[in-house]
Amino acid sequence: MRRIVRNLLKESGYTEADEAEDGVVALHKLRNSKFDFVVTDINMPNMNGFQLLTEIKSDEKLKHLPVLMVTAEARKEDIVAAAQGGAAGYIVKPFTKATLEEKVNLILKKVGLG
Question: What sequence ranges are listed for the domain Response regulatory (predicted)?
């Protein structure tokens, strides 16, 4: 799924998209490179998307990053938890390129990057 999201982002003009196999690797990449935006699945091994969101929002150097949460389930409690945790948006699989593009563009406009 992460390769699909990465390819959809590249097709949408976000050519420098990167990917990580889990939240631990993602956090390491975020702390050691420069990123403008994070798309994370909620269900990942080693560190799930909620844990990653918490780490990002509690890190002085990363807390400004907008985070779009992706999940296969549209559970109300997950949507509420994502919003309370500071996620910029939430998207449910399966989704189209247009839906992803629209969400990303909307979030980037909100934070002044779009």
Answer: 1-108
* 8 A C-beta contact, residue 72 and residue 44: no
Say what the pLDDT of residue 114 is: 65
Q: What one-character-per-residue DSSP string does the chain give? A: -HHHHHHHHHHTT-TT----SSHHHHHHHHHHS--S-EEEES--SSS-HHHHHHHHHT-TTTTTS-EEEEES---HHHHHHHHHTT-SEEEESS--HHHHHHHHHHHHHHTT--
Residue 47 · residue 23 · CB < 8 Å: yes
Q: What pTM was estimated for this model as a whole?
A: 0.92
Q: Cβ(99)–Cβ(91) under 8 Å?
A: yes
Task: Tell which residue, 67, 76, 65, has the closest CA to residue 49.
Answer: 67
